[in-house]
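FAQ
Q: What does a multi-component entry look like?
A: The components come first, one per line:
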Amino acid sequence: MLFPTIEFAVFFAVVFPITWLLNAHYTWKKVFLVAASYYFYAAWRPEFTLLLLVSSVFNYGAALLIDRFKGRARLAVLWAAVAANLGLLGYFKYYNFFAASLMNAFAAFGVKVGIGFIEVALPIAISFLTFHALSYIIDVYRRVLAPTRSLLDIMFYIGFFPHLIAGPIVRANKFLVQTVGPRDPANIRLGQSVFLILGGLFKKVVIANYLSTGFVDGVFRDPAANSSLDLIFGMYAYALQIYCDFSAYTDIAIGIANLLGYEFPQNFNYPYRAVSVQDFWRRWHMSLSSWLRDYLYMPLGGSKFGTLATCRNIMITMALGGLWHGASWAFLIWGSLHGLALVIERLLGVTGEHGAKKRGTFATVLGWLVTTQFVCLAWVFFRAPSTDAWLGYFATMFSGRSWSTSMTPFVAAICVLGALSHILPPRWFVTLEKRYDEASLPVKVLVPFVVIYLISVAAPAGIAPFIYFQF
Amino acid sequence: MKHTNPTEFERPHPMGELRTAAIVIYATLMLLAVTIPQSVVNWLADMNGNPVEETALRGAEVLRNLSQRAGVATGYQRARDIFIAISGVEPD
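Then the predicted structure of the entire assembly, as tokens:
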């Protein structure tokens, strides 16, 4: 069930009033929201709701066990629980990749090893589900959070439909406190939620979809058949597409959760305004980067043990972060490239936005230019389906062969619209939300109606799934 | 003198917020169903066709016919035709 569909609109139109009618009876409200979330998930593959249930029950029990033990036994239970979660993720997502890589490695030395592949569909959102589960048990281990005695709360936390498929990754300690009693309707920020949802619909349905079908898919399908200029445009267009696609999903998720009375963290903050790669990761998929920092980089030692260890920890974190996106060498290279860039920045003393501001306008502009080019180039690894594909893409792009373009004026206009999402000052959006909140009721109704109507007028015939669904 | 938290005055009535949100959601969906009725018909027609869906489909068709007779639904098609002509995207 995709957000920008009639099916989801009807689903939400049913869920919204029942959620608030049950608000005072919050246990029943949670039962209802868990049932609704499982129904939402079952819309893809009903059998995988069992995975959701098993993960919730397992991590609920694991957290209680972790809490019961002390010292090494406590750590042992944590490791067992983490291994089980990662094992499940590994089985579905990485088994075939590692099996193929192992066979290729042996084959390089002339040794023939037969490892059977498994034929199993990848459960949608399994990575997000695992990250939520790990956040819970690790926080319990660290005593940041007391384990909940309610299995229902864990089922609700892991399965809540707005964040279930593609985030944002909500921390257990931030979400579970919201489940202990009725939610206050005064927490609904209508203007902000409406604009997040409308902006998300526009970014996904109009910008991301047209960039994908109108240009990006074509140039990445057969790079050799395109001019160098088209491949350069394709690289930037994909950078806009993936931003508009992914940020659209999480914006809509945050807006929907707020309409139901729940708070989710911000996930994007104008990432292509970043003036360093470090700054980029503070603005792009913020809930993932902070997760990786707190649950991977810091446990590895963070920056506490000298420069060499810090660089190693950055590389491990970013390489695994890349691999999290998918079982392929291209994702590993993408993550490692970002890791390498972060290491170089650290060695050169380049820090985030604050440091850049101190260095003046020229350094800031230069930092932005270098960061943007690096991030866009790295996206090619992310988008190309195979090693041959990205090799072919770069070979043709840098060959300087033909400087004509097949980009239509319409796609160029869509690119400009996508870029405007970063060019327009943030305060304009804040003012719009404020004006909306102060407007009369008919205006409050007319704004979303007119915007969705216009989006429908301009929408392509079908809506492609969100890019991050595969992760 | 009794001190009162000023935020109590500023805070909007909670049920008022909820009521406004509900009106915005349902009025928007109703307006969209009336002005783009064919999309609801198409969506229901793609379903399996159990008795409930069949009834909903008949209801959606009645709404579409009424909307077309009143001239409300034609605006969408005209706007779509203009968009296709300007943008050069392929027609549905």
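Q: Is there any commentary attached?
A: Sometimes. For this entry: Chain A has 20 helices and no strands.
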